[in-house]
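FORM 12-B: Structure-to-Sequence Request
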């Protein structure tokens, strides 16, 4: 009597799903390696945060990468400054009258 293992259809690997899984795995591994290199080259105000994030990336692997991109990069002052500048420009594109009012205020205060 021979024992046969019944594998559900969604666990069976075909040639298409196997190559797809390789591509996804490669993308995840590259993102993980890139995030470690990015974090190692990045300047932090305090080195403890940098070491903590590096340890999280090394020990949690791709999950650490996801956590870093969701929570760690948001504290980057360069990213915050760029985001604020874009929002500032977008506001004055939508409300040009505010910019002209602000310019007239600065001209009148300079003339006093």
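FORM 12-B RESPONSE
SEQUENCE OUT:
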């Amino acid at each position: 009597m021979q024992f046969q293992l019944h594998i559900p259809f969604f666990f069976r690997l075909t040639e298409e799903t196997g190559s797809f899984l390789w591509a996804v795995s490669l993308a995840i591994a590259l993102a993980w390696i890139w995030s470690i290199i990015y974090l190692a080259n990045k300047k932090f105000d305090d080195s403890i945060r940098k070491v903590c994030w590096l340890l999280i990336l090394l020990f949690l692997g791709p999950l650490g990468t996801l956590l870093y991109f969701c929570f760690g990069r948001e504290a980057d002052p360069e990213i915050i400054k760029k985001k604020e500048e874009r929002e500032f420009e977008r506001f004055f594109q939508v409300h040009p009258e505010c910019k002209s009012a602000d310019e007239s205020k600065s001209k009148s205060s300079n003339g006093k």
